Amino acid sequence: xxxxxxxxxxxxxxxxxxxxxxxxxxxxxxxxxxxxxxxxxxxxxxxxxxxxxxxxxxxxxxxxxxxxxxxxxxxxxxxxxxxxxxxxxxxxxxxxxxxxxxxxxxxxxxxxxxxxxxxxxxxxxxxxxxxxxxxxxxxxxxxxxxxxxxxxxxxxxxxxxxxxxxxxxxxxxxxxxxxxxxxxxxxxxxxxxxxxxxxxxxxxxxxxxxxxxxxxxxxxxxxxxxxxxxxxxxxxxxxxxxxxxxxxxxxxxxxxxxxxxxxxxxxxxxxxxxxxxxxxxxxxxxxxxxxxxxxxxxxxxxxxxxxxxxxxxxxxxxxxx
Length: 321
What we know:
This protein has strands at residues 4-10, 23-32, 36-38, 40-51, 70-81, 99-101, 104-113, 121-122, 126-137, 144-149, 168-174, 186-192, 196-197, 202-204, 206-211, 217-231, 236-248, 256-258, 263-265, 280-292, 297-307. The protein is mainly β and 321 residues long. It is elongated.
């Protein structure tokens, strides 16, 4: 693109995230070093889900869809753009129109209404993407093309879920199999103060590990996981990603480790379930991992949680007068 100094799709800085029902607007910006002849400037908006079903070992989530890959399209818009302040020349149509763009800066504004669509998501084997593609068509020459994703979050209001504000807990007791030795159990407890969280919140970790065995507990940690389930035409696929981790040190025999004040920050995440998408489903859960010295012994305490986009509102208590 030797004649082009700059070519980009510009969204407003304040619109880092869009929600269904929002107006997606902005402009295509083009800076030319020399004049060029064009047949038109177009922009395409495309919302789609994709699961690479044909090759489970590949992490390529590009647009080269295979015949057996699972896809779902939510919208596709193709619109022709005109430069700010310009008018469509009389007597010309979209098929035969051709004009000259002089050297310098040109802007082509756009806007469209975002329909009711799932949140953006990208995994190792699939994605839900919302993208804009700008195309400068030139007579007798190859087109200039540029594609750019924009982020969409379909709101999940935790205040609408009846149990989102209830505490959840789980406890596992496991007896180590130590040969020729009498050994007590290892007891592990994991609890959190509510079921529903949103990105940016801190999860308060209530953990207690009692080591009544004859061996040392080498250490423990709590991890936040995302479980992704892909629904294909012929098969299903899964992946599990570790999102965050809090570690604790070893526990000698006969000792108890009670966590105090440990928290975990919820990173930016798509809401649970990926509502509106039939190709991908996502869930989140915590796991307390406890590892004993010998023999190989792993104790795991799982705990499901829900990630939403609207946090639970704190209930206000009226002071007595």
